[in-house]
Specification:
Number of helices: 24
CATH architecture of the largest domain: 3-Layer(aba) Sandwich
Strand content: 5-15%
Distance between the termini: 91 Å
């Protein structure tokens, strides 16, 4: 008997938690063993060992992580069970399983997408919220439950089963058919009107400005008035002050012009114009009753769309929902106004809303790009006129959307030929002035060679994908007021047919053709991109000599901008590489060198363990 008791005692010391699960099997085994007088001491010991094994198995089974019990505990506020389940998951090495936002055991997700912190907040279990935060739960994890139908399709379950589990294991008071995609625990606390839970989440670092998939903050779901709403408003005020101070410091250290020039080749005057207007708006030196409106003019492929994208990245820290792009060639008919703002009541598609109004309802401070606005129907321009004038828009349902903090960018190819020719003239004049500045006062010596031009300025040396084209200080080209008023404005007025529309535009930004140095930088960037692809996809190293840049830059077409450079690289470089790879002349691990001879590009290949390049004759393969 003493042997059995000592074995059980050893188990109790090794395994934490209640011991009542072990006492029953041990007692039964010991009673049976003692009832038989014929059993020897060794048999008693064997029975004791079996009893200990059974008890240990029962204890281990009781301490295995159980998803249903974990989330049920969060739902009813069972703090002890939460603590036990989190500790068990920690010992098992379990994490949240949430992908990029993976957290600790307290963040372990339900198989249908939510976390225990969300469950506790939705059911107003403030004690459970505080305990989960103490155990390391992240307050800003996002809900992945997208409604019964979408979740059933993603998980392979029946929609009725999804509905039942959502009600049983999350909250029975919420519509399980609706999508809660992107919600945080603070959204649920606001909807449950739990001021204690909301306070605990905010003090733990929850972002009160976080938006769900529909673009709404937690404040949108709080009752008005309510203590929960007051708590969230106070933290929003402090949060925005802190974010504004950090953004101001970042702008001082890293101005908008510097950021844009990292991604935009050339267009110095356009970048400075846009940056100056945005700076006025950000620092409170602009009319707050009207949104900021730009019209970008210039040839295709000159950087208009890219500048709008980079502006959105700068303003909203790479948030994809903060950049709205609408191709206005899709709005060439009168009836397509409904596609923009939504169909009126009684018409097909009324419940869906419009493409623009839906996007602005999610992010009223977004950067909105109206691409090729000159192709839109005049009735669409009438809608934009109201939008630009008042900073508000009424959708098909009659809902008013305020968007005075948005930035609207329109692009157009109107007057592109005139702007291109004018830009080329400005380039020639600037080059002539630069030549006058560098020309020696005494002139060239008799019989001296003229200054080098064109490709002779480029070094004949091998470049790799990390090499940089030398930058030269070029004169910023400014479009004259006379050219704007006498050439461009009549074209715009003739097309749009109304002065009030042009009067709503804060800045008309002109994009001029690239200089020779900018073309070399474009070629360098395109070759570097293909070098990275060659290394990643085919394990091939791509290098080039300096003359290659000039040969490819000669393919520039002023009417197609950077796209002509992209196509030139594909035709003259990538096509040769693909042909050489097809004929096994370029294999994995080799190095390819591009060279230019008399305007023609040639390839030379160096085998993986070879020292020298071997010229490649594709015609002979």
């Amino acid at each position: 008997m003493s042997t059995i008791r000592s074995a059980a005692a050893r188990i109790f010391r090794l395994v934490p938690g209640p011991v009542r699960l072990v006492t029953v099997p041990v007692r039964r085994c010991s009673t049976n063993s003692l009832s038989s007088k014929s059993l020897s001491i060794s048999n008693r010991r064997r029975y004791a060992l079996h009893a200990a094994t059974v008890g240990l198995a029962l204890i281990a089974a009781d301490y295995v992580y159980n998803e249903k019990r974990f989330f049920k505990a969060a739902k009813v506020g069972n703090v002890q069970e939460l603590r036990k389940q989190v500790e068990t998951a920690k010992n098992d090495g379990r994490s949240s399983g949430g992908g990029d936002e993976e957290g600790g055991p307290a963040d372990r997700r339900h198989s249908l997408g939510w976390t225990a912190l969300m469950v506790a907040a939705a059911n107003d279990q403030s004690a459970a919220v505080k305990e989960l935060l103490r155990l390391g739960a992240k307050p800003d994890l996002r809900e992945q439950y997208a409604g019964a139908s979408a979740t059933a399709s993603a998980t392979g379950l029946h929609p009725l089963e999804v509905l039942q589990r959502r009600e049983d294991e999350f909250c029975s008071a919420m519509n399980a058919r609706a999508s809660f995609l992107g919600w945080t625990a603070l959204h649920y606390a606001a909807l449950a009107d739990s001021s204690v839970s909301a306070t605990a989440l905010l003090e733990a670092g929850a972002d009160p400005t976080a938006r769900d998939h529909a673009g709404r903050r937690a404040l949108h779901y709080a009752r008005d008035p309510s203590p929960t709403r007051d708590v969230i408003l106070e933290h929003i005020r402090h949060w925005e002050e802190k974010v504004a101070a950090a953004a101001a410091e970042e702008r001082r250290r890293f101005p908008l012009e510097q950021r844009l020039k990292q991604y935009i080749v050339g267009q110095t005057a356009a970048i400075e114009t846009v940056a100056a207007a945005v700076r006025r708006k950000e620092n409170g030196w602009a009319d707050e009753e009207h949104p900021l409106v730009f019209l970008f003019l210039g040839s295709s492929g000159i950087g208009k769309t890219e500048l709008a994208k980079q502006l959105a990245r700068y303003m909203h820290r790479d948030d994809p929902s903060a950049f709205i792009r609408l191709d206005m060639s899709e709005y060439q008919e009168k009836h397509e106004v409904a596609k923009l703002i939504g169909a009126p009541p009684g018409y097909v598609g009324h419940e869906e809303g419009g493409q623009l109004t839906r996007a602005l309802a999610r992010r009223a401070d977004a950067v909105v790009l109206f691409d090729e606005v000159d192709k839109a129907h005049p009735d669409v321009l009438t809608v934009l006129l109201q939008l630009f004038d008042e900073g508000r828009l009424t959708d098909g349902k009659g809902k008013l959307i305020e968007c005075k903090n948005a930035i609207f960018v329109m692009t157009s190819n109107l007057a592109s030929d005139e702007i291109a020719q004018y830009g080329l003239q400005l380039r020639r004049e600037a080059e002539a002035r630069a030549e006058q500045r560098v020309r020696p006062t005494a002139g060239l010596p008799s019989g001296g060679a003229p200054p080098p031009t064109g490709d002779d300025l480029e070094p004949r040396k091998e470049h790799d994908e990390n090499s940089e084209v030398g930058e030269c200080e070029e004169e910023a080209l400014q479009v004259s007021r006379k050219f704007k008023d006498t050439v461009v404005r009549p074209i715009l007025k003739r097309h749009f047919g109304r002065d009030e529309f042009l009067g709503r535009i804060n800045e008309i930004v002109y994009f001029l053709p690239f200089s020779r140095q900018e073309l070399l930088a474009l070629v360098q960037r395109e070759l570097r991109a293909w070098a990275e692809r060659a290394r990643a996809r085919h394990d091939v190293e791509l290098r080039w000599e300096g003359g290659v840049l000039g040969a490819l830059a000669d393919g520039y077409d002023v009417h197609y901008g950077a796209r002509s450079i992209k196509h030139e690289v594909e035709r003259r470089v990538v096509s040769q590489l693909a042909l050489a790879a097809e004929r096994d002349a370029v294999t994995r691990g080799c190095c390819v060198l591009l060279a230019a001879r008399a305007g023609r590009l040639t390839l030379a290949v160096r085998a993986p363990r070879a020292q020298d390049y071997v010229p490649l004759d594709l015609a002979a393969l």
